[in-house]
Design goal:
With 119 residues, the protein is mostly helical. The chain is built from five helices and four strands. Strands 1-2 form a two-stranded parallel ribbon. Helix 1 packs across helix 3 and helix 2 packs across helix 3.
Length: 119
């Protein structure tokens, strides 16, 4: 891999996409992989788990809108601050936490600066 402070090239691209997602919007792990044109949702998830702490990690999410296990409250705080669309929690939902309203919150990459498009 080279020096320890160097990120793998794919990880750098994933993190760059995470930084492009506007406040109040999200992309799924699969969306990021598709936007990059390589790998898949699991690889994106792995990158975010290992290296995502320095980027808006809460904007790269599961496709079902469930908040990231173990980070639900931190993410929820960010979503509320950014005005990210949420769906109310049902009584069956563990901890009665809301989910992301994926229909409204999902971002397709439109509006990314053209020189950054498809990193």
């Amino acid at each position: 891999m080279g020096r320890m402070d160097e990120l793998p090239e794919y990880a750098e691209r994933v993190l760059q996409v995470a930084e492009l997602i506007p406040p109040g919007r999200v992309m799924t792990y699969g969306d990021v992989a598709e936007w990059l044109g390589e790998a898949g949702p699991r690889q994106v998830g792995r990158v975010m788990a290992l290296y995502g702490g320095g980027v808006p990690w809460w904007r790269v999410v599961r496709s079902d809108g469930v908040l990231l296990p173990g980070h639900e409250l931190r993410a929820l705080e960010r979503y509320r601050a950014e005005g990210t669309p949420l769906r109310g929690a049902s009584r069956a939902t563990e901890g009665h936490l809301p989910r992301l309203d994926m229909k409204s919150a999902r971002w397709d990459g439109v509006g990314a600066q053209s020189d950054e498009a498809h990193i």
